[in-house]
Amino acid sequence: MAKSLQQIFPPLDDFLTLPAEQIAPLLLEYLKQFGERIHRYNLTIQSSEFGQYAGRRYDEAARVIQEAWSVLHIEGLLAPTGDSSNHLWFVTRKGKAIESRADYDAYRRGYLLPENSVTPELAQKVRPLFLSGDYDTAVFKAFRELEVRVRDAAGLSEELLGVALMRAAFDTRSGPLTDQNRVEGEKVATQHLFAGAMGIFKNPSSHRNVSFSPAEAAAIIRFADYLISWVDSIDKSRQTEPS
User: Fold this and answer.
1) pLDDT tens column, 203-217
2) CB-CB contact of 159 with 168 (8 Å)
3) Where are the domains of the chain?
4) What is the crossing angle of helices 162-169 and 135-154, to 10°?
């Protein structure tokens, strides 16, 4: 059953304070009721349902709704049909697949961490947690995967964990993963980089709840993936060295 705009949107005073990203899923829900040819101009003129909703604050509300429309377009959920007037739009296949606010939130999180932005192994282990909004656990598991890769590549004891493991694996004198062809300063910096990353991102998450924004968590997971790729490249180069 079709819902009126007033049933979907919050009271006008609240509407005008919301960012476009929060209005976008409400607008998408409303637009999906209009079929394959949505007339952008007719839907937002003052004589429309939206115009009646906005009342005397129409000009201000119209700018806000255009911001939300742009968000849907940028995210690939709404597209123009290509008619000469550029007034006709349609909800894309991605947009039609979004059936709830939870679906929309998951889609936006996926936009921050696309499946091909990290290695397939890490995507399988971490991305479902990220999409569900469990950023703390997603970051922890990304760095636990780094820990496992370093231990396996270095052939070190399972008793070594976290920062201690990184310091042993990249010890400037005896570390199995240390590139002895680098200058001393670079070897020290590499050891600090891996140990510091483990201390900042894995250790706190293993002891307490840590709050990450979606963008922060996505960036940290990609950083873990970069470090994992670094370790993998070291391991591969050692395997190809002549005995």
Assistant:
1) 766 666 667 888 899
2) no
3) 5-108, 114-240
4) 40
